[in-house]
Amino acid sequence: MKNSTLKAATIALFSALFIMGCEDNTAEEAGERIDEAVTDAQNAVEDACEEVKEGVKAEETNC
User: Fold this and answer.
1) Hey, which of 6, 28, 37, 47 has its CA 20 to 30 A from 53?
2) Separation of alpha carbons 20 and 40, rounded Å
3) How many domains does the chain have?
4) What's the superkingdom here (predicted)?
5) Eight-class DSSP state of 61
6) Does residue 15 fall inside a structural domain?
7) How many CB atoms are located within 10 Å of the residue 31 CB?
8) Does residue 63 fall inside a structural domain?
9) Distance between CA 53 and CA 49 in Å, rounded?
């Protein structure tokens, strides 16, 4: 499950970077899109971590 989440996050990041390269945007807009892609990837990893902790019934489920 962890590998699939990381793969999805990686694909999302590279897709966002590819799309940014195809459009005429300002540097600020490109930076915001990169920030959003990184945040989405971080959230996906955190969600996967929490699912694993819930699966093993850890006392602390926050990552």
Assistant:
1) 37
2) 16
3) 1
4) Bacteria
5) -
6) yes
7) 12
8) no
9) 6
Q: Domain for residue 13, yes or no?
A: yes
What are the phi and psi torsion angles at 26 (to 5°)?
-75, 165
pTM of the full structure? 0.53
Classify residue 38 by burial, with Cβ atoms within 10 Å: 0-12, 13-18, 19+: middle
Is 60 among the domain residues?
A: no
Buried b (16+ CB within 10 A) or exposed e, 3-16: eebeeebeebbeeb
Tell me the per-residue pLDDT of 3-23, one tens digit each, with 9 for 90 and over: 777 777 788 777 777 776 665
List of residues 6+ apart from 45 with CB closer than 8 A: 5, 6, 9
d(Cα 1, Cα 48) in Å, to the nearest integer?
7
